[in-house]
What we know:
By secondary structure, this protein is α/β, with parallel strands linked by helices. The chain has helices spanning 23-31, 49-63, 76-85, and strands at residues 2-6, 12-18, 37-47, 69-74, 92-95. It has one domain: STAS domain (Transcription Regulator spoIIAA). It is 35% helix and 34% strand. A hairpin with a 5-residue loop joins β1 and β2.
Amino acid sequence: xxxxxxxxxxxxxxxxxxxxxxxxxxxxxxxxxxxxxxxxxxxxxxxxxxxxxxxxxxxxxxxxxxxxxxxxxxxxxxxxxxxxxxxxxxxxxxxx
Length: 96
């Protein structure tokens, strides 16, 4: 199960597992983001390479207008995925 929505503060909150089966839902939401945004991963349990692809595509699109994604509350496992994939150099990431 995966859910993505804005919270009361305007952060994008991701919960569950962002894997290939949930990519269409994640991509549709991310395609609507038009300015710098903070993604809160406090409740995200897992991200697959397909999920990483959605983030990278969104980051590249936003960078064209000088905007960017910031990712906060990343658990140790997901932080390792970002580190080993080199995404820590692409995104502003804050661990829990």
